[in-house]
Specification:
133 residues, alpha+beta, six-stranded antiparallel sheet, four-stranded antiparallel sheet, 10 strands
């Protein structure tokens, strides 16, 4: 469904109906993650360190391009006022006592859509140096 080639042409991402896949330039699979829906669009940051995919379930998700580790997910509601932003990498394995279903519901906020995009930029500024992304 979607394809992007790394700026240095050393790998490419392929978004399919069931997976987001990364292949080396020689066609060897580097990693694969299960998609929450059809990957309608994929892209890479200018330096090739971050991958982003837009899925059929309405989410936009960011990944480390070298490992496929999901870093951040964003669901913009169709009304352009409500949104949900979450960081899957910080879930149950580190804090099993947290009720994530309730936490997910609590994240829903009635606010301006632009505020969500600002939070995404801030999250990457704060976390990418420690994550090497």
């Amino acid at each position: 469904r979607s394809l992007v080639i790394a700026p240095d042409k050393s790998f490419f991402l392929l978004g399919t109906e069931w997976n987001l896949r990364c292949f080396s330039a020689q066609g060897e699979e580097r990693w694969k993650v299960t998609a929450p829906g059809i990957a309608w669009a994929v892209n890479l940051s200018a330096d090739g360190h971050l991958a982003v995919a837009a899925y059929g379930d309405g989410t936009i998700r960011w990944y480390r391009a070298d490992t496929g580790q999901e870093l951040l997910a964003f669901f913009p509601h169709g009304d352009r006022k409500r949104w949900v932003l979450w960081a899957p990498m910080f879930e149950v394995r580190q804090r099993p006592e947290i009720d994530f279903e309730r936490a997910f519901t609590d994240l829903k906020r009635k606010t301006q859509f632009e505020e969500g995009t600002l939070l995404i930029r801030c999250w990457f500024r704060l976390h990418c140096s420690s994550l090497n992304c």
